[in-house]
Amino acid sequence: MRKSSLLVALFLVALVAIACGSSSESETTAIAKITPSETIFSLTDLTDVGFKKGKTFDVEGLTGATDAYLGYWGIDPYDRKDYEARFYPSHADAVEFGVVFADERTGPDAVIKSGEPMWEEGAKEARACTRSAGGDSSNCRISKYGDYVIYGNMILVCQGRDSATALEQCAALLEQLVPELVTG
């Protein structure tokens, strides 16, 4: 009896050690918020990796941008996240002109109330409505986008309740676009 208890205990310890030491395939590589690259991306690059375009935004007022889209992507097609993809002629333009607009659209201090953003396009779609416990009204002044990344000429504004979650979503999509980001 004592011998079987010892075997069960050893088995459980081994199982826990294996589980704690294993890594998940869904883990994403940490990514820099701004990555200089000469790569020039377009919507086609995103759609080639499964990105679904939901809406084309008018870029008038989005200084320097050539195109902007609302779309959806996820490794699991039943758990897609929202993204805004904004394209500029170059990485330098994306950084110089795009940061102020991306900062405004993301995070807890996002400016998405009608009439307030510098660029109105997509502000309505950026809203995440929350209801407090026991409350009878919704607060739709919270951005669904926790953060963004700039890679080459593209700014990806990514869904996430906070910066860390959003950057994980950005990294997961970028890993599909730029396989060399995955460290092996």
Automatic annotation (TrEMBL):
InterPro entries: DUF6810 (IPR049216). The keyword Signal applies. It comes from the Bacteria. Residues 43-177 form the DUF6810 domain. Residues 1-19 form the signal peptide. Keywords: Signal. This is DUF6810 domain-containing protein. It comes from Candidatus Lucifugimonas marina.
